[in-house]
Design brief:
Blueprint: H1 7-20, E1 28-29, H2 30-37, H3 41-53, E2 57-61, E3 66-70, H4 72-90
Antiparallel strand pairs: 1-3, 2-3
Length: 95
């Protein structure tokens, strides 16, 4: 049976990608987020708008493209998410 990701897990995946792949400090492009997030462009665009709107991601706009960086609030979200995930797994639950 296929294991489907929850919306919160997808958000955590996108935020961790924005954190881990931002090696140069210039942000991560949509293509990298799409590949690691494994979702359609339409769905990713909608999610990115929500994450920027909630302050979890920062949008860096250039001449032709936008790049994304995780914000301090996003780092805090990831820490809380991973902490809760470990807590849930200690009871045998999967998020």
């Amino acid at each position: 049976m296929a294991q489907y990701r929850t919306q919160v897990r997808i958000i955590a995946d996108v935020l961790s990608t924005a954190r881990d792949m931002n090696t140069e400090g210039t942000g991560v492009g949509v293509t990298a987020l799409l590949r690691r997030g494994n979702m359609s462009y339409t769905r990713m665009s909608k999610l990115l708008s929500e994450l920027v709107g909630s302050g979890l991601l920062l949008e860096l706009t250039g001449e032709k493209i936008s790049k994304y960086m995780i914000s301090e609030k996003g780092v805090q979200f990831l820490a809380a998410y991973y902490s809760f995930e470990d807590f849930a797994q200690s009871f045998g639950l999967r998020l």
